[in-house]
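Dear support,

Our group has been running a series of protein-ligand predictions, and this particular one with beta-D-fucopyranose is the one our PI (initials K.S.) wants archived with full inputs and outputs. We had some confusion internally about which version of the output was final, so please treat the block below as the authoritative record. The input we submitted was:
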Amino acid sequence: MPAFPENFLWGTATAAYQVEGAAFEDGRGPSIWDTFSHTPGLVANGDTGDVACDHYHRLEEDLNILADLGVGAYRFSISWPRVLPGAGDRINQPGLDFYHRLVDGLRARDIAPVATLYHWDLPQELEDAGGWPNRDTALRFGEYARRMGEALGDRVHTWITLNEPWCSAYLGYASGVHAPARTDAAASLAAVHHLNLGHGLAARALREVIDPAAKISVTLNLHHIRGESERDAEAVRRTDALANRAFLGPMLDGAYPRDLIEDTASVTDWSFVQDGDEATAAAPLDLLGVNYYNPVLVRQWDGTSERDQADGHANGAASPWIACDDVDFVRQPGPYTEMGWNIDETGLTELLLRLHRDYPELPLMITENGAAFPDVVSDDGHIHDEQRVDYLRRHLTAVTEAIEGGADVQGYFLWSLMDNFEWAHGYAKRFGIIRVDHDTQVRTWKDSAHWYREVVAANALPATDQVTTTAS
Ligand code: FCB
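Confirmed final output from the archive:
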C-alpha cells in the first residue's frame, strides 16, 4: 500500500476556457480561443467553450463536489479577458468577483486555491497587436499578474504563472493546431522567449504583492524523451533542447542553452532576447509544476525510410518541432488512452528523478496527470471507468517510486475534475473523474472519482481494487 508524505497536497485541476462558459457575460472580452473555436473547421464537431461546463453559473455545485472528494487543493485558471477585457487596465469587477467567490468558496471548504494565471486564453486584442511573439505581451502579462496578486494574493495558496508554454508557443504559433493558429517558426521562437520573460515578470510582480507564505510556480509539460537506440542520442539532445531546456534554461538557470541557439540559427538569430531578459526570467520559484501524460520516443531519420511523426500532438500544417527535420517520432507500443497517447508511467518516475538530479533544491508538484477514455454510462447509471482507475493507480505508484528515489514531490493534481472542452478535440474527449452531460450539465461521479476520494482520504493507494488491463 504505497503511501505519500505527510502534508502531500491532493487536488484536481481545470482551466477557465475549458469549464467556465459564460463567454459573453458580465463584461468578459474575447480571447484567442473564442476566435479559434468559432473558426469553422478548427475544433472537432464545431464545439466551442461558449457554455463549456457552465461552471461560472454552477460554482456552488462544483465547490461542493470538490468538498465531497475531500481534496486539499483545487487548481483553476483565471481568464485574463474576463478580468481585464480588451487587454486594457480597467478591471472588470463582475469578472473578478467570480474569482473572489471561487477563492472564498474554496477556503470556506478548507481547500487551498491554486491559481494559474495563463492557461492559453490570451485576450484577442493582444493577439491582434502581435501576440506572444511581441515583447509587449510579456510586459502586459506582468501587469496582469500584479493586478491579480493585489486582488487575490491574500488568499491564494499557490500561484502558477503559465500553463505549458510549450503548447502556447509551438502549437499556437508553429503548427497552428491551437489558438491563434499561426504557422511561423520564427514567431514561435519569439513566443518562447516572451513567455519566459512574461513568466519572470509575473513571478517578480507577484512576489511584491502577495502573502509572503504563498508559493510561486510555473507549470511545464516537460517531454520525457527517449531514443530508440544509442544511435539516436543526437535526436534526443535536439528535441530535449527545443521542448524542455528552452524553458528550464532561462527560468531555472538564467540562460538559454547554447545548443538550442545553434540548432535554430537558420530560423532566428534570437535578437529578441535583450540584455537582462534571461536574468528576469530566472525569478526565484518555490515549486516547479510538472504535467505528465506520456513519454516520447525519437529516432534519427536515416534519410530514406518512411517518416514517423507520432508525437501525440495533432498534425497541423507545419511541425511544432522546429529545426528537428531529421527526427522521427516513433509510435510507441500500447496500451493507449483515447487520445492515442501510450500509457507508460515509468516516464513519470524518470522525469521526476531527472528534475530532482538537475534541480535538487526545487520541490516538484504534479499539476496535471490523467486520461481520456470513451466512458460508457451503464444501465445502472454508473460509469465503471476501470481504465482510468488503472491509469491513475499506475501513475501514482510511479510518483511514490520517484519519492523513494529522493524526489521532493509535494502534491498531485488530477486532470481533470470533470469532463470539459478538450481544446481542438472539443467535447469528444473525456478526462473527468466527474462526468458532465454536455446537454443537461448534469454531473455524475465516475468510479474513478469514488476511488480518488479513497486515495485522498487514506493518503495512500488502496491495496486491493479491480485493476484491469487496458485495451490496446
Ligand atoms: C494539457 C492541458 C490541459 C488538458 C490536458 C489534457 O496539455 O494543459 O488543459 O487539455 O492537456
